[in-house]
Amino acid sequence: AARPALCPPAGSRTMSAAEDAEWLRQVRKQFGNIAGEHKEINLEEFKSALQVKESFFAERFFMLFDSDGSGTISLEELLKALSLLVHGNQTDKLRFLFQVYDVDEPWGCRGAAAHGGVPAVTRRGAPSPRAGSGCIDPDELRLVLRWCLRESAIALPEERLADLTRALFEAADKDHSGSITFEELREELEGFPEVMENLTISAASWLKPPPPTERSCRPRYLTRAYWHNHRGKLAFLGGYVGLNLLLFALAALRHAGLGGWLAVARGCGQCLNFNCSFLAVLMLRRCLTWLRATPIAKVLPLDQHVVFHQLVGYVVLALAAVHTGAHVANFSRLARQDGRRALAEYLLSARPGAGGLGGTASQTGLALQGLLAAMLAFSSPCIRRSGHFEVFYWTHLSYISIWTLLLLHGPHFWKWFAVPGCLFALEKVVGLARRRGGGLRIVEVNLLPSKVTHLVIERPQFFRYKPGDYVYLNIPAIATYEWHPFTISSAPEQQETLWLHIRSLGQWTNKLYEYFQQPELPSAEPKPLSRSLREKRCRRWVQVGADGAQLLANAGCYIDGPYGTPTRRIFTSEHAVLIGAGIGITPFASILQSIMYRYRRRKRSCPSCHYSWCEDLRDEEMTLRKVDFIWINRDQKHFEWFVSLLTKLEMEQAEQEPGEQFLEMHMYMTSALSKNDMKAIGLQMALDLLAAKEQRDSITGLRTRTQPGRPDWSKVFRKVAEEKKGKVQVFFCGSPALAKVIRAHCEHFGFRFFKENF
């Protein structure tokens, strides 16, 4: 991944004198720690400071910083070079860039070949490393571009590297002399003004100037935008808190004459009646999925039902602790007043009139307290994600015992639990009935080298779902009792099969990938690879056919669902922005495929001239005017998941009437260095030139150009706002850390934000 920038982008801000002095102080301090008594840094120490083991650019920078050719860098040499790069003008920075690319004798192509493609390091007394030929020839450019590809973690075949070299060289060699001079390079770079203004070098964090100090007038939670975008959730929380306070107050006042501790216990008990029933309501997935199709979905925060379930669980544990503590305090008071009974007798002995069935309120209460504590302890993320899912699963099944004990413990709990309990039982019966209907056949398994398992499962009869919905999957051959949620990545219009793309991140998903990797698994002949796939070694296929009875028995599966997600709102939006990070594309893959099917249904052609066009997609079920699809991946290989789908989408759009695109795609590769980085500027320019020439991206093969680095969300959302296609809604599926960043930008621009939650 790209490392922090050595110098701030020119034009973005000017370092104050205090910031400049503090940065220089940090550089001097870190330099002293590395250089030691000799007060100089050699190549290995320089590479260690940059946190790289082997880098062409680290050695090039070292030689350029080593102005006297001594083979070491002094503090004065380092500060002089950094001052030029931080405070120098564009010509100074371009001159440095040119010298990086001018890999010539004595460190040129022949010298580099003698050292495995890396120029040799000079020793004291050697000629200046700046003494190149003064021009860049094709071999030098090819060598540098090869290292640019390595720095950006991009793998391209040699013939593609040759195409990139040729495209950049032909564009920069204005006089067709067979070499690029400094003036020609500057002229070519003038066509990329954003690069000229923001030329930086990636380096270690200790070389980075201090970031600008962000000053905020008030916390984010006190802004008007935050309250506007979270009004549904905040209103729900306010109502929830208010209802609990009301229940507590009414119950406590009713028993106020029996002592303070008993009043507190009764108040908490009434709140527990409500909350223990409400826990069931929040996990009625089928009912919640049905509610998503009603107007109430615009009022209630159905998307956060799992988060609220966790919140209510913590509230139940806290109320139970206070409830138990208040009763213990009251029993202690009674024991002191009575003098004949000890506290233990009040807690452990059944007594008529003590509450509960047969006077067992104390005993059932203690049992409930223990079960609740165990459930909370084994529901923590560290248990679920550390390969102990079955511990979480079995301890969570104690909800059956908890509800049974609550019916025995509280005389009025049944009134609260009657309706939620019946609905919960009904959902479970429906789920069990569908599972008992028989397992499903895994038609095909596609293993991707990025450790993603693509399952193609036969679609059950009468299985209806919406784009973006998810199911719970159980494969007995992997784990008998484990059910895991996965988004359906195929479109509802695909009648015969369901697709699931499962990334190997935990114990179960890794077992799944390894299970289908076993060469002895299929009894039938595996599906042969096509020539291109065999050459690229990018996929392994396991085909389950009619002859694979043994595999079918071992690799059968069960699904429970479908269940709705926030993405159901996409088709009723006006301007939808879909953001997927990595495997987070799966819900949007289903949506994009559904859009493609709708394109095909509305495609029309003239019988006379065979001109084809697509009718307006908007109807009563789809009000979309514009879709922006943003896919962020760490490296090149992760784009393989859905490139074929995106290619088809581009082709479908290209066939419609020319004009503004309904679907606009944006690809980002975070491991690639940005265009304003000296280690990548040549590569990104070459990729731009070749993409413009061939009308396709060299990384993905799409027409959409893959952008290096991370999106600038301010620029992205500003562009979306300027399009004025209607109310903007942003849908995200990915890491929680990135969700927080995007949510903050959505609040700033006034966009609605929805995130996938399981």
Question: Your description of this structure?
Answer:
With 758 residues, the chain is α/β, with parallel strands linked by helices. The protein has four domains: 18-104 and 134-206, EF-hand (Recoverin, domain 1); 224-429; 438-517 and 548-563, Elongation Factor Tu (Ef-tu), domain 3; 567-606 and 620-671 and 709-756, Rossmann fold. The protein contains 29 helices and 17 strands. It has a six-stranded parallel β-sheet with strand order 15-14-13-10-16-17, with helices on both faces. Strands 7-4-3-8 form a four-stranded antiparallel β-sheet, covered by helices on one side. Helix 13 (260-281) runs antiparallel to helix 15 (305-338), helix 13 (260-281) packs parallel to helix 21 (413-436) and helix 25 packs parallel to helix 26. The protein is globular. 33% of the residues are buried.
SSE layout and pairings?
Blueprint: H1 17-35, E1 40-41, H2 43-49, H3 56-65, E2 73-74, H4 75-87, H5 90-101, H6 109-113, H7 138-151, H8 158-172, H9 182-189, H10 193-197, H11 224-229, H12 231-254, H13 260-281, H14 285-291, H15 305-338, H16 343-348, H17 361-377, H18 381-384, H19 389-396, H20 399-409, H21 413-436, E3 442-448, E4 452-458, E5 470-474, E6 484-487, E7 497-503, H22 507-517, H23 531-536, E8 540-543, H24 549-554, E9 558-563, E10 575-581, H25 586-601, E11 603-605, E12 612-614, E13 626-633, H26 643-654, E14 663-669, H27 681-694, E15 706-708, H28 713-723, E16 728-733, H29 736-749, E17 752-755
Parallel strand pairs: 10-13, 10-16, 13-14, 14-15, 16-17
Antiparallel strand pairs: 1-2, 3-4, 3-8, 4-7, 5-6, 5-9, 11-12
Keywords: Calcium, FAD, Flavoprotein, Membrane, Metal-binding, NADP, Oxidoreductase, Transmembrane, Transmembrane helix
Membrane topology: Multi-pass membrane protein
GO cellular component, one term: NADPH oxidase complex
